[in-house]
Amino acid sequence: MQKKLIYQYAGSCFLLLFVFLGYVVKFYPSWLNPFDETLTRVIRSGYPMMTPFFLWVTKFANPITIILLFLVVLAVFLINKYYAEALWLGLGTIGIAGLFNPLIKLVFLRERPTLEHLVVETSSSFPSGHSTGSMVFYGSLLLLIPILFKQSFWQWTLRILLGVLIALIGISRIYVGVHFPSDVLGGFCVGLSWLLLTYPYYRQKRFVWRFTRKQL
Q1: Residue ranges per structural domain of the chain
Q2: Alpha carbons 202 and 100: distance in angstroms, whole number
Q3: DSSP label at 119?
Q4: Topology of domain 2-215, per CATH?
Q5: For residue 29, what pLDDT is reported?
């Protein structure tokens, strides 16, 4: 019960931060200029030497990559009868990353940075779809790792790698010139609020399904 409250409190904080960011983006975007310009300058200080690396990293959150990986992981869960895991991963990846994020972009219609774009993007800028998608998909896997890997070493190794990957994907979107740092922060907030607010309910559903299966 205590952990559930902690998750929900943290998730609510990230949701409120997203609402605040969205309000500023919509009505007072100039307030974010110092934050966006400073971080962009720092992240792009390695240009053009770091370009191949970040072009590679950003592909891990391209829609086609997420879709293919999602189908593979979904198949693994279904084959092993991890139905609660499959449902939770599907709701987040399809519902939040695939549907909600593109729709919420239409509310803000923020123009993308005027920097040279190293990749082609046509939608609005806020919140970053790659950031939301990576946080929801890879973040879900990070939380679900104990289901597939029982050894503590592998659990923590994979968690660290996934956490680093999520962070690098967000940074890559700024480096390639298609997002402001506040776009990435907004996308991460959307993903984190979903994960933290729904994870306790997934755990509860998983317990109920496993208990029911044992009874049968």
Answers
A1: 2-215
A2: 20
A3: S
A4: Vanadium-containing Chloroperoxidase; domain 1 (1.20.144)
A5: 96
